[in-house]
């Protein structure tokens, strides 16, 4: 500190970054633990990912103010992967995803993630939010949740009946509901009180109530930091022969990358500092996930809640996110036993609140008013994730988005002018693709067979091979009836 004091120009924003790092640490701590528990892994692994997000990704170039760590958006996917392949395979999945992110960043593919339909991304987050909320409602009541997303939702009425018949379940559920209530009401308190993050305050109050009243609820199981960190062994790498595991790796890579880069775009709108370099940010995320994979920890993404807290707290440089990783490391090293005091219903309440914020209710309404096709993609993507799984749900959403774009790009207008005498004039304008071919042929075949036809294609911007061939065949058939040959005016645009 003496050296810094002698040369304050070397660290001109140290005070602001130090304050911001403490705020981010307090926001990240309960979320790291909650995401880990909800993912079905030791709580300490959530802290490990948060530490790597600060000390590794935080040092690297890309986005200067966004903060990385374990994210609620990957909870459902991680839980499914651990349940199907086991905890040792998680490290292999995260390591492979990190290496893929490094490769994509090196190949400058980061910017292409910005081209993913926003409706697909919001639908993905909405689907995750629905499954996360449903699963954590079981945890809040101290009940075992079904494995599938659809099972979690359809099983809620039965779970409610079971909870009503158990005093312990009702106590646990009340504690979780109280945690959600504290987080919702926290924003309405005076600003001085709100210097303490709502999530931390809710967990602290729930822990205090549990201890004061001796409530019989489950608490976090503590294994110790070193015991929880288990690098993947040779047997775990053997799982790479599984097609299902490769699909899971692709899902991790796609979702983590998209969430991080969309977060970067959102964070850029919150400050006037340097803009995000997307390819470098993708490589920074890849480096962090590679280290997390080697340590057998949770995957990381950039997290908008922690990032916005960082900006709001006055952070000026990347030092704030690096320091938040230092505080997480000190907590994990010096106070790990404190985790055992945290009641699981409180963490479930935090994740129910986080899942609710993943669902864009206002966005769905506004999309439905102005862009119903995009709203449909959002809803179908979310529903597919709930009904099937994360990876296939996202693929369904992407396929719908591509199909919608192709359909709109093939906009075509056919105008027929028939003056009663002379040739019938048919004018085509727009984009003639195979998607519109049935409509084109149906309209042309309805023209009078005993009249000459002038087919004007000069208004077309694009004419694909399938349409050109079909139009030529139609013209031959129409001319074969004994009328004058169809006169065709070729498109004016070159290269169609």
Automatic annotation (TrEMBL):
Cellular localization per UniProt: Membrane
Domain of life per record: Bacteria
Name of this protein: SulP family inorganic anion transporter
Domain SLC26A/SulP transporter: 14-381
Location, primary (coarse class): membrane
Record key words, sorted: Membrane, Transmembrane, Transmembrane helix
Alphabetical list of Pfam families matching this protein: Sulfate_transp (PF00916)
Species of the source: Streptomyces lancefieldiae
Membrane-topology annotation of the record: Multi-pass membrane protein
Record-annotated membrane-spanning stretches: 18-38, 85-103, 115-138, 169-186, 198-220, 240-262, 325-354, 375-400
InterPro entries referenced in this protein's UniProt entry, alphabetically: SLC26A/SulP_dom (IPR011547), SLC26A/SulP_fam (IPR001902)
